Amino acid sequence: MPKTELFNREEILHKCADLFHRKGYNATSMQDLVDTTNLNRSSLYNSFGNKRGIYVESLKFYKDKSSQSVQSFLLDSKTPLSALESIFNYAINSGKNGCLLSNCATEMANMDEGIKRFLEHNGDQMEELFENIVTKGQLNGNFNYKRTAKEYATYLFSALQGIRVTSMITDNKSKLDSLVKTTLSILY
């Protein structure tokens, strides 16, 4: 019979995701995870298997929380353009550590096939979200038809990644705002 976890799994994943976000996978030790969670090694190993298991669960937790934020932007936005602006502004305002998933892509995608597939799936979901937003904008006349919604979605996802990286290396808010405005101007 499996042991019952005597801790709040979501709280632990939040702490682990924050740690991996700050330090990355390779620079995070099991001792760092023990210190951050205040759990002993055996509890971590019993619950997650190993460091990679903790990392993968942390990535999923982070993705789910980020998806909730994006969904709230969609609900709160009156137009497709304002939805896209909210998503891009969230990315540039999320701090100097950037996006955990983007950081993971640069650190781990070429080293771990399972993580690479997870990131590809996440990218596909983001592109689908962008495609739906662009389609609405094209149908209501706010966005042009120079490219298909799918082509714009692929571009927007790639641009978002670049803007996330740029926001990690500059504090120049007007530069970042200009990047967002220029990126989205392709649509109208």
Map the helices and strands:
Elements: H1 9-23, H2 30-37, H3 41-48, H4 51-76, H5 80-92, H6 100-108, H7 113-139, H8 149-169, H9 173-185
Helix pairs in contact: 1-2, 1-4, 4-5, 5-7, 5-9, 7-8, 8-9
Low-confidence stretches: none
Shape type: elongated
Proper CATH architecture of the largest domain: Orthogonal Bundle
**Can you say what the CATH homologous superfamily of the largest domain is?**
Tetracycline Repressor, domain 2
Secondary-structure element pattern, one letter each: HHHHHHHHH
Strand content: under 5%
> Which CATH class of the largest domain is shown?
Mainly Alpha
The class by helix and strand makeup works out as mainly alpha
Gyration radius, to the nearest Å? 19 Å
The helix fraction, in percent, is over 70%
Task: Please provide a written account of the structure.
The structure is a single chain. The chain is mostly helical and 188 residues long. It folds into two domains: 1-58, Orthogonal Bundle (Arc Repressor Mutant, subunit A), CATH 1.10.10; 77-185, Tetracycline Repressor, domain 2 (Orthogonal Bundle). The chain is 74% helix and 0% strand. It is elongated.
Highlighted features:
mainly alpha, 188 residues, single chain, 0% strand, Arc Repressor Mutant, subunit A
What's this, in brief?
The chain has nine helices and no strands. By secondary structure, it is mainly α. Helix 1 (9-23) packs across helix 2 (30-37), helix 1 (9-23) packs across helix 4 (51-76) and helix 5 (80-92) packs antiparallel against helix 7.
